Amino acid sequence: MVGAPVVSRRSPLTRTRFIILRTNSSECENENQGYERQRYPMGLRGYVLKRIAHALLVVYLVTTVLFIGIRSVPGDPAVLILGRDADPAAMQELRESLGLNEPIYVQYVRWMSGIMRGDFGNSLFTNQPVTDTIFGLVEPTISIAIVAMIIAIFIAIPAGIISAVRQYSIEDDIVTFVSFIGLSQPSFFTGILLLLIFAGHFQLLPAFGYNPISEGILPWLSSIILPATAAGISSGAVLMRMVRSSMLDVLNEDYMRTAEAKGLDKNLILFKHGLQNALIPVLTLGGLLFGALLGGTVTLEIVFGINGIGRLVIQSISRRDFPVIQGVVIIIAFVFVMLNLVVDLLYTAINPKIRY
């Protein structure tokens, strides 16, 4: 119709609402960006430096508490070295040479200054550098821990996925029952059973000792596969329970049902959308278990006659060999906190949405 008014497609009230909503959205985005900048002002590099500073602080506190705690335990290293019937003058001379007669704060300052230079001192019994003593025995312990962690992962992830996907089925019951056995059975007892079966009855593997990796992969692997399997079964049971619990939480999420409604492949949904998001807590627990394996294989080393870090710590405690005990604990504490940092950084590889 000629002269009819042209009606706007967006009324003034609608335009006002649109402007308000858009303004609020921009403000929210600015607030989120400001929060991210405030949370991680220097990005990944700043986060790593901050975590390293925290790690060094933790190691420092551990060393200080360890130094005070060891020297608070009753006993005299000079008596253990020379015997109770030794000449008092010889004992006094030995204490002087070891610096045991000096005030504790003087001993602490000298010891900390040595650590800053990478010098952990000498063993009170062998007079060998602590670093040489530790690194001469670290290979068996690290080998057992790495192979045990690999075995635990190969046990935990498939079993946990099957148990979660087929919840309340016969497969779930079997996996749960086996995991409870692994949780309740000490690793040294599992090691004894494996020793009796594969080294005693079938004589397929060596019973005692350790072959360095420099002698060949097969001799090395044959000497650690039994203790590593015993440790891996216990760790795998713990990881499996975490995989199952985490997968059950993820499978009940809305985005999983949305992916199924879109008709995506079931394996793609399970492994890409499910397992990838479920691995975050599993990775955290795995880092803690690996750190525990580094310092907790002493019983397996005794059962299988392997000279590793665990046996070194027990011998040093019984002999009150202060420098060796302190060196081992400091190195394990440093490795442990660095593992936690590496685990945090691996989150970004598993879930790209995580940013630092």
Can you put this structure into words, describing what you see?
With 356 residues, the protein is an all-alpha fold. Helix content is 76%, strand content 0%. The protein has helices spanning 12-39, 43-72, 77-82, 88-98, 104-116, 130-135, 138-165, 170-184, 187-201, 217-251, 254-261, 266-295, 298-303, 309-319, 322-350. Helix 2 (43-72) packs antiparallel against helix 15 (322-350), helix 8 crosses helix 10 (217-251) and helix 11 runs antiparallel to helix 12 (266-295). The radius of gyration is 29 Å and the shape is globular. The N and C termini lie far apart (63 Å).
Q: What is the N-to-C order of secondary-structure elements (H for helix, E for strand)?
A: HHHHHHHHHHHHHHH
**Overall geometry:** globular
Beta-strand level of the residues, as a percent range? under 5%
The number of helical elements comes to 15
Report the uncertain regions: 1-41
Radius of gyration: 29 Å
Main pleated-sheet profile: none
- Strand tally: 0
Residues in helix, %: over 70%
Give the class from helix and strand content and strand pairing: mainly alpha
Observed structural traits:
mainly alpha; disordered N terminus; 356 residues; 15 helices
Q: What's the structural blueprint in terms of helices and strands?
A:
Layout: H1 12-39, H2 43-72, H3 77-82, H4 88-98, H5 104-116, H6 130-135, H7 138-165, H8 170-184, H9 187-201, H10 217-251, H11 254-261, H12 266-295, H13 298-303, H14 309-319, H15 322-350
Helix pairs in contact: 2-15, 7-8, 7-10, 7-12, 8-10, 9-10, 10-12, 11-12, 12-15, 14-15
